[in-house]
Amino acid sequence: MISTGDSSPATRLEAPMRRQLLAAISQAAWPVMALGRPFEAVAADLRSQPTGQPVIETLSVLRSRLELQFAPGFSPTLQAAARTWVHTSADAVARYFGRFPVPKVELLLVPEDGSGVRGGVTYDEPSLLIRVRLGRQTTEAQFIDDWVLVHEMVHLAIPRVPRPQNWLHEGVATYVESVARGRVGLVPPATVWRVWAADMPQGQPQAGDAGLDHTPTWGRTYWGGAMFCLMADVEMLNRSAQRQGLQHALQGVLAAGGNYGVAWSVDRILSAADAAVGQTTLTDLYRRMKDSSEPVDLDSLWRSLGVAGGTLDDDAPLAKVRRAILPW
User: Does a cis peptide bond (omega within 30 degrees of 0) precede residue 189?
Assistant: First the structure.
């Protein structure tokens, strides 16, 4: 989830003040808001930190710097497990995009009662920041199963967009999170396809729908956006004999200077992405779906990809495309 709050100069906080304020707010039990030598940590001694101050470490992911901030309340064991989880998540994102999306980002982890990753949000002011709420009893298996952190890190790869196109941000994060985690073995590819087949229909237009740009419901924003990404990925890979798909298109956005630190129009984002693969697939698909309530024939798509019936059929017409998205 990305922050869509007021970012006017009057609302901006200096980084140290922001860390303390966000940590205090989170501890007050707010509800959920909405390669190489890749990992080096300079760990602060937990016992030497002043009471109420975050423990701060610096992680290097390729040529990017991730400032990892532990709000007060982490045990040494949870801190170590969380550090590994952050590294694993950042590595999955960097492998998908060819590099970590931004040169520098702060990641504030806030502990609370319970277990599991409880929610995350990404901010752009006054500097890039991801805040994630984390249960103190989170297990190793829950860290491995988590998708929230990869989702938030994927947001960093897409420029900020006007509110009506928030579906693009959330759709890309929802779709790429699954692909990135599947490719590094954090989730089996067959599981990804089963989940998509079960959940992606939530992105279909319902009564009163006016197209992706005009229907900001939860289903259309997250799963409608993910459905857009899947359709684009399939089309690009099919047209290029599996050589270039959405991954290469999004890498082209980064190469053109686009990331969450800048604001671009959707047309500019999709044009840069299309140019990277020598197609107009994304722009054409956007023109078809932005104002249209026409449903997508997902059943036909699953059959063509060889996903129908909960099995993976390698004799299906688009089985090679399916394997290009997630190798099996």
Answer: no
DSSP structure class, residue 11: G
Residue whose C-alpha is closest to residue 248's, from 312, 149, 189, 179: 179
Residue 62, pLDDT score: 86
Instruction: Please state whether beta strands 104-112 and 117-123 pair in parallel, antiparallel, or not at all (unpaired).
Output: unpaired
In this predicted model, what pLDDT tens digit does every residue of 15-38 receive, in sequence order? 444 444 444 434 433 333 233 323
How high is the pLDDT of residue 3?
Answer: 59
CB 24 within 8 A of CB 72: no
Q: Residue 246: what residue type?
A: L
Query: 133: which strand partners?
Result: 110, 119
Pull the structure tokens for residue 219.
């289903």
User: What residues have CB less than 8 Å from 95, skipping those under 6 apart?
Assistant: 35, 180, 183, 184
pLDDT for residue 31: 30
User: Secondary structure of the chain: what % helix, strand, coil (to 5)?
Assistant: 50, 10, 35
Low-confidence spans in the chain with pLDDT less than 70: 3-52
Contact 109, 121 (CB under 8 A): no
∠ Cα 324 327 328 (to 5°): 135
CA distances from 49 to 56, 105, 325 (A): 9, 22, 45
Residue 39: predicted pLDDT: 30
